[in-house]
Design brief:
Strand 9 and strand 10 form a beta hairpin. The chain is about 40% helix and about 25% strand. The N and C termini lie far apart (about 50 Å). The protein is globular, with a radius of gyration of 19 Å. The protein has a single domain, classed as Rossmann fold, CATH 3.40.50. Helix 6 packs across helix 8. With about 260 residues, it is an alpha/beta fold. The strands form two sheets. A six-stranded mixed sheet has the order 6-7-8-3-9-10, with helices on both faces.
């Protein structure tokens, strides 16, 4: 019986290891001589949503920029499926197709809605069912019904909420395996926020999603995993239900109660 239990525990451990998509170990970053990230270690799973929370200046956005090499002067180790991102096959451009990043402020190109979606797609992909793929990406971003009759119109004519969802569709057109979002619903109206959250839930069934948010209620709605950062360090992480109901660290409890912390 003991041997059987040990085998079951080993199999469960193997499942956990296999489910990890992205691993960060001892990640440190300094900008202009100022420490921004301090020995960060965390993991993202093969599917599901992780919410990254913490006060302004905690290093959340900097962490995202390290994960797709927008910042490359960091120390430590970042691996995807066991492979170092510094030695990614195809280089940085290939890495950024694999790891999509959507900024807080939508940045649409001065072309049509349709051309925005296909902007970064390889030419080979463009020739293969391009219209169908554009429609699919816009549907995944919960934008298709609103723009399907005006795909040739300028993207700049869209509302801010629609532009943010268009940026999401553009990122999805590259078929990323990991999607990083830096406050994707900040300053958006409630309906746009709800649509984006619904899209993220749908996408998280097949890819890894990491979402920076200052909205603690949103982090609870997104469920999945929560990582709490402060002063460039990971203070606590865990399953969303347990994290919000029974935080282990004093710093976490203070932040959840007052939205401020002092982790120095």
């Amino acid at each position: 019986m003991k041997i059987l239990q040990q085998e079951q525990m080993r199999e469960a451990s193997d499942d956990v290891i296999q489910s990890v998509e992205l691993s960060v170990q001892g990640l440190s970053l300094a900008l202009s001589g100022k420490p921004i990230l301090k020995a960060i270690s965390c993991q993202l799973f093969h599917t599901g949503i992780t919410s990254l929370i913490g006060p302004s200046g905690a290093g959340k956005s900097s962490l995202l920029r390290c994960l797709n090499m927008l910042y490359d002067d960091w120390q430590g180790e970042i691996t995807i499926a066991g492979k170092s991102i510094r030695a990614w096959q195809g280089g940085v451009d290939a890495l950024r197709q694999h790891v999509g990043l959507i900024a807080q402020k939508p940045a649409v190109f001065p072309v049509s809605i349709y051309e925005n979606v296909i902007f970064g797609m390889p030419k080979k992909v463009r020739k293969q069912n391009q219209d169908a793929w554009v429609a699919q990406c816009l549907k995944q971003a919960a934008l298709w019904d609103e723009v399907k009759a005006r795909l040739d119109e300028p993207a700049s004519a869209l509302s801010i909420g629609q532009q943010q969802r268009l940026c999401l569709a553009r990122a999805l057109a590259l078929k990323p395996k990991i999607l990083l979002l830096d406050e994707p619903t900040a300053s958006l109206d409630p309906r746009s926020k709800q649509l984006i959250e619904a899209s993220l839930h749908q996408l998280s069934a097949s890819i890894t999603v990491l979402c920076v948010t200052h909205d603690l209620e949103q982090a609870q709605r997104l469920q999945g995993q929560v990582i709490f950062m402060c002063d460039g360090k990971v203070i606590e992480s865990g399953d969303a239900d347990a994290f919000f109901q029974h935080p282990e660290r004093v710093e976490t409890r203070e932040f959840l109660r007052w939205s401020v912390c002092d982790c120095d």
